[in-house]
C-alpha cells in the first residue's frame, strides 16, 4: 500500500510539473521575446538580423533565450516520457490519443523516443535503453563498379570506421573489377569486427537493363532498386549508401533511426535539396513525378522484410513501366523511380533530418541543414563536379573529405573492446607465426617484416589491356617508392607494352601520386599500366613483397623483371616478343638475360642501337652495371662476349649473380625475408637456378641504369653494422632452406658462397 501511495504521489508530481513548467516557460519566453514592443525571432536556422536596430546585446539575449528554450523542451520531453510510463503502470490508466511533433530537425517519426533515454544524468528506471546495442552489427550496402568508384569506397569506409563503435557488415554489389580490388584491400586491411560480402553486379544487369538511363552512373545507378531481391532473405534492414558519401558521425546514430519507423514506413530518405523535381530549372524542364521537392537516394534506410511483404519488386517495376511511357528515360537513375513510387505511396517514406544527407551539388539548400560543425552527420558529394562544387562552406567540407582521403588506414585496425570478433583464419595464422619469433633476437625486426600484412589497393588507376592473341606478350614488372616517381614518364616512353608497378606509399602519398598521374599527359594516355599501391607499414622497404605483388597481377604469359631506375632500350618490347618465339620460352625453362649498363650522367643522349652503346662504352660515357662497386653481380653475363655476339648464348650461374631476366609468369616468387638493400634479387636468381632454369643472354638487348640519390636502405646497410650482420644471418638461413628443399643439388650454393 505504501508503495502504491508513493507511486501515486510521483504520478501527481509529474503531472503537475508537466502542466506548470510549459505555462511558466511560455510566459517567460513570451515576455522575453519582445524588444521595444517588437517580437524577436527564435528560429534556430534563421540568419542574423540585418535591421539597424539590431545590436550585439540583443543578439546575446536572443541566443540565451534559444538555449533556455531548448533546455526546457528537453526537460519537457523527459517528463512526458516519465508520465507516459507512469500512466502505463497505473491501474487507473486509460488509453487516449497522443499527439506527435513533426519538425525538420527530427524527421517525420517519433521525435522523442530516441533522445528521452539518453539525457545526461538520467538514472531513472523510466529512461529508455540505447536504440543500438553495444555489439549489434550494422549492415551497410554499397553499389560499386570500376576503378574510380573503388577508390571512392575506400574513403567512405574510412570515414565510417573512424567514428564507428559497432561491428559492421558491408554488402558490396560490385562488378568483377571492383570485387578484385576491394576483396584484396579488405583481406589485407584486416580490420577487426568488419565482415565483407560481395554480390555480382553483372548478374543483376538483366534486372534493370530495360530501363533507359541518362545518368553518369550508368546501369549500376539503378541497382539499388533490386536490393530486396539481391541481399539475403534473412537480412531485415540495411543502410544503403552512395560511394560519394563522407560520414562525420557514428553510423550507429543513423542505424538507430530505424526504431522511429511507424506503420507502413519502410524507406528512410532525406528530402532533395535542389529544385530538380520542382521542374523550374530551365525552360521545358520536365522531371519525373515526386512528392514536393522529392527525395535524394544517396542515403537510404531500407526495411527489407517489410518491403518484401509489400511486393516491392512488383511495385517499382509497374511504376517505372508506367512513367517510362511518357518520360522515355530516367535522368537521375534509381532516384527517379524511388520518387515516382513515393508520389503514389507517400506512407512508405520516413523523412530523415536533412543533416543525414547534406547534398553538395550546385544551387542546393544544403546550408539550411546545419548551423555548426556539430550538426553535420553525412556529406554527399552528389555533383559530377565533386570537390569543385559551389558552396559557401565548400572549403570546410573539402578539408574534411581530404582528411579521410589521406588518413592512415592502418590506424583503423583497432579492436572493438567487449565485442567478440568472428574467427579469422588469416589473422590467427599471423598471430601464431609472430608468437613463434623471439623478440630478444637482434634480428627480430627483420624476421617480423616477413609476416607483416601490408594493406594493398590493386589497380589504383584505370587499367585496360587485352594481351596479344599470339601468346608472346611481355609485361615489364617493377616496384618503386615516392622518390622514384619521376622515372615513370621516361619508362612509358621507352616501353610501349604493358607494365605492372607496385608502389610503396602512405595514404597521403597515394593521393599525391594520383594528382601527379592525372596531371601527366604521358601517363593518362596509357591504359596498359597497372598501378598497385602497397601501403607503408614498418621500418623496412619490403622490396620483394612489392615485386611479388606486381608479378602476381599481370595478364601476359611472360614478364620482364626490371627495376624502376632502368630505362629499356627503344624497341625492347617488340624484340623480347620475337625472342620468346625464337627461344621457345613457352616449352622450356629459360631466363632470358637483358644486359645491364649504367651512366653517371643525369642527362644522357640515350643510345638508339647496340653500335652506339658500344661507342659510348668505349668513350667512358657508359659502364657495365655496378662495374665500380659490385662486379660479381653481373660478371657472369660475359660482356666481352656480348660485344660481338649476334646470337643468344648460354651462361652458368655464379655466386651473387643478379641479372634482369625475362621469364614465364609461372616462375617462383621472390623470398620475402629479404627487405631493404641486399640479396633480394640474388636469392631469386639462385632459386631459378635450383629449379634448373637455363640462363640465356640476348645479344641485341640492353637496359641502362639512370643515376639517383642513394636510397635510405642502402644508407642503413652501409652505416649500420647490425643491419649487415642480420643480412648475413638471413642469407645463411636461406641457403639452408634451399638445401632442405632441393637436396644434394643445392649444396653448390653453400660451396660457392664459401669460395667467394
From TrEMBL:
<dbReference type="GO" id="GO:0035269">
    <property type="term" value="P:protein O-linked glycosylation via mannose"/>
</dbReference>
<feature type="compositionally biased region" description="Basic and acidic residues">
    <location>
        <begin position="59"/>
        <end position="69"/>
    </location>
</feature>
<keyword id="KW-0472">Membrane</keyword>
<feature type="region of interest" description="Disordered">
    <location>
        <begin position="83"/>
        <end position="109"/>
    </location>
</feature>
<comment type="similarity">
    <text>In the C-terminal section; belongs to the glycosyltransferase 49 family.</text>
</comment>
<comment type="similarity">
    <text>In the N-terminal section; belongs to the glycosyltransferase 8 family.</text>
</comment>
<dbReference type="GO" id="GO:0000139">
    <property type="term" value="C:Golgi membrane"/>
</dbReference>
<feature type="transmembrane region" description="Helical">
    <location>
        <begin position="12"/>
        <end position="31"/>
    </location>
</feature>
<keyword id="KW-0808">Transferase</keyword>
<feature type="compositionally biased region" description="Polar residues">
    <location>
        <begin position="44"/>
        <end position="58"/>
    </location>
</feature>
<keyword id="KW-0328">Glycosyltransferase</keyword>
<keyword id="KW-1133">Transmembrane helix</keyword>
<keyword id="KW-0511">Multifunctional enzyme</keyword>
<dbReference type="GO" id="GO:0042285">
    <property type="term" value="F:xylosyltransferase activity"/>
</dbReference>
<dbReference type="InterPro" id="IPR029044">
    <property type="entry name" value="Nucleotide-diphossugar_trans"/>
</dbReference>
<keyword id="KW-0333">Golgi apparatus</keyword>
<keyword id="KW-0735">Signal-anchor</keyword>
<dbReference type="InterPro" id="IPR051292">
    <property type="entry name" value="Xyl/GlcA_transferase"/>
</dbReference>
<dbReference type="Pfam" id="PF01501">
    <property type="entry name" value="Glyco_transf_8"/>
</dbReference>
<feature type="region of interest" description="Disordered">
    <location>
        <begin position="43"/>
        <end position="69"/>
    </location>
</feature>
<dbReference type="InterPro" id="IPR002495">
    <property type="entry name" value="Glyco_trans_8"/>
</dbReference>
<dbReference type="GO" id="GO:0015020">
    <property type="term" value="F:glucuronosyltransferase activity"/>
</dbReference>
<keyword id="KW-0325">Glycoprotein</keyword>
<protein>
    <submittedName>
        <fullName>LARG1 glucuronyltransferase</fullName>
    </submittedName>
</protein>
<keyword id="KW-0812">Transmembrane</keyword>
<comment type="pathway">
    <text>Protein modification; protein glycosylation.</text>
</comment>
<dbReference type="Pfam" id="PF13896">
    <property type="entry name" value="Glyco_transf_49"/>
</dbReference>
Amino acid at each position: 500500500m505504501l508503495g502504491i501511495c508513493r507511486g501515486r504521489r510521483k504520478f501527481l508530481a509529474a503531472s503537475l510539473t508537466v502542466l506548470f513548467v510549459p505555462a511558466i516557460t511560455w510566459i517567460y519566453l513570451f515576455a522575453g521575446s519582445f524588444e521595444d514592443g517588437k517580437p524577436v525571432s527564435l528560429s534556430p536556422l534563421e540568419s542574423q538580423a540585418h535591421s539597424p536596430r539590431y545590436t550585439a546585446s540583443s543578439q546575446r539575449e536572443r541566443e540565451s533565450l534559444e538555449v533556455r528554450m531548448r533546455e526546457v523542451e528537453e526537460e519537457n520531453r523527459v517528463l512526458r516520457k516519465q508520465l507516459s510510463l507512469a500512466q502505463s503502470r497505473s491501474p487507473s490508466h486509460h488509453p487516449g490519443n497522443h499527439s506527435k511533433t513533426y519538425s525538420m530537425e527530427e524527421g517525420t517519426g517519433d521525435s522523442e523516443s530516441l533522445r528521452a533515454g539518453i539525457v545526461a544524468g538520467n538514472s531513472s528506471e523510466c529512461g529508455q535503453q540505447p536504440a543500438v546495442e553495444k555489439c549489434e552489427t550494422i549492415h551497410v550496402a554499397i553499389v560499386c563498379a570500376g576503378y574510380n568508384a573503388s577508390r571512392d569506397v575506400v574513403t567512405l569506409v574510412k570515414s565510417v570506421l573512424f567514428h564507428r563503435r559497432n561491428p559492421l557488415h558491408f554488402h558490396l554489389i560490385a562488378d568483377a573489377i571492383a570485387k578484385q580490388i576491394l576483396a584484396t584491400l579488405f583481406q589485407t586491411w584486416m580490420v577487426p569486427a568488419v565482415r565483407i560480402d560481395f554480390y555480382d553486379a553483372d548478374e543483376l544487369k538483366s534486372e534493370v537493363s530495360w530501363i533507359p538511363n541518362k545518368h553518369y552512373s550508368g546501369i549500376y545507378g539503378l541497382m539499388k532498386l533490386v536490393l530486396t531481391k539481391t541481399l539475403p532473405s534473412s537480412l531485415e534492414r540495411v543502410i544503403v549508401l552512395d560511394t560519394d558519401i563522407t560520414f562525420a558521425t557514428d553510423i550507429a546514430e543513423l542505424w538507430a533511426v530505424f526504431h522511429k519507423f511507424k506503420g507502413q514506413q519502410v524507406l528512410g530518405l532525406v528530402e532533395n535539396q535542389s529544385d530538380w523535381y520542382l521542374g523550374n530549372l530551365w525552360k521545358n524542364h520536365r522531371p519525373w513525378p515526386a512528392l514536393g521537392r522529392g527525395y535524394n537516394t544517396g542515403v537510404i534506410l531500407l526495411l527489407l522484410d517489410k518491403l518484401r511483404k509489400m511486393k516491392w519488386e512488383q511495385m517499382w517495376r509497374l511504376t517505372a513501366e508506367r512513367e517510362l511511357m511518357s518520360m522515355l528515360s530516367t535522368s537521375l537513375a534509381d532516384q527517379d523511380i524511388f520518387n515516382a513510387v513515393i508520389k503514389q505511396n507517400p506512407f512508405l517514406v520516413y523523412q530523415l533530418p536533412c543533416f543525414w544527407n547534406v547534398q553538395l551539388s550546385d544551387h542546393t539548400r544544403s546550408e539550411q541543414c546545419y548551423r555548426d560543425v556539430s550538426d553535420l552527420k553525412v556529406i554527399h558529394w552528389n555533383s559530377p563536379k565533386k570537390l569543385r562544387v559551389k558552396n559557401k562552406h565548400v572549403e570546410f567540407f573539402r578539408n574534411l573529405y581530404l582528411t579521410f582521403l589521406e588518413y592512415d588506414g592502418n590506424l583503423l585496425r583497432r579492436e572493438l573492446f567487449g565485442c567478440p570478433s568472428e574467427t579469422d583464419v588469416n589473422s590467427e595464422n599471423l598471430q601464431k607465426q609472430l608468437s613463434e619469433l623471439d623478440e630478444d633476437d637482434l634480428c627480430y625486426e627483420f624476421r617480423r617484416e616477413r609476416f607483416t600484412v601490408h594493406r594493398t589497393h590493386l589497380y589504383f588507376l584505370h587499367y585496360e589491356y587485352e594481351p596479344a592473341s599470339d601468346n608472346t606478350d611481355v609485361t615489364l614488372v617493377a616496384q618503386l617508392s615516392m622518390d622514384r616517381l619521376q622515372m615513370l614518364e621516361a619508362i612509358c616512353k621507352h616501353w610501349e607494352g604493358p607494365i605492372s608497378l607496385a608502389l610503396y606509399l602512405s595514404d597521403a602519398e597515394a593521393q599525391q601520386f594520383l594528382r601527379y598521374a592525372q596531371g601527366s599527359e604521358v601517363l593518362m594516355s596509357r591504359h596498359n599500366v597497372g598501378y598497385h599501391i602497397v601501403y607503408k607499414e614498418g621500418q623496412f622497404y619490403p622490396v620483394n613483397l612489392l615485386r611479388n605483388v606486381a608479378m602476381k597481377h599481370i595478364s601476359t604469359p611472360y614478364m620482364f623483371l626490371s627495376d624502376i631506375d632502368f630505362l629499356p632500350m627503344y624497341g625492347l618490347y617488340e624484340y623480347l616478343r620475337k625472342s620468346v618465339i625464337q627461344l621457345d620460352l613457352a616449352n622450356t625453362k629459360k631466363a632470358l638475360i637483358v644486359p645491364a649498363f649504367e651512366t653517371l650522367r643525369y642527362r644522357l643522349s640515350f643510345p638508339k642501337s647496340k653500335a652506339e652503346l658500344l661507342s659510348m662504352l668505349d668513350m667512358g660515357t657508359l659502364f657495365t652495371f655496378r662495374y665500380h662497386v659490385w662486379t660479381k653481380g653481373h660478371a657472369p653475363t660475359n660482356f666481352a662476349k656480348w660485344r660481338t655476339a649476334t646470337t643468344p648464348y648460354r651462361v652458368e650461374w655464379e655466386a651473387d649473380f643478379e641479372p634482369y631476366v625475362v621469364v614465364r609468369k609461372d616462375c617462383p616468387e621472390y623470398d620475402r625475408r629479404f627487405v631493404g638493400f641486399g640479396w633480394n634479387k640474388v636469392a631469386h636468381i639462385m632459386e631459378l637456378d635450383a629449379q634448373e632454369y637455363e640462363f640465356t643472354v640476348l645479344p641485341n638487348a640492353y637496359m641502362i641504369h639512370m643515376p639517383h640519390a642513394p636510397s635510405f636502405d642502402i644508407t642503413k646497410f652501409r652505416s649500420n653494422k647490425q643491419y649487415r650482420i642480420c643480412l648475413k644471418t638471413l642469407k645463411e638461413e636461406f641457403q639452408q632452406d634451399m638445401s632442405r628443399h632441393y637436396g644434394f643439388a643445392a649444396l653448390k650454393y653453400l660451396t660457392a658462397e664459401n669460395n667467394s
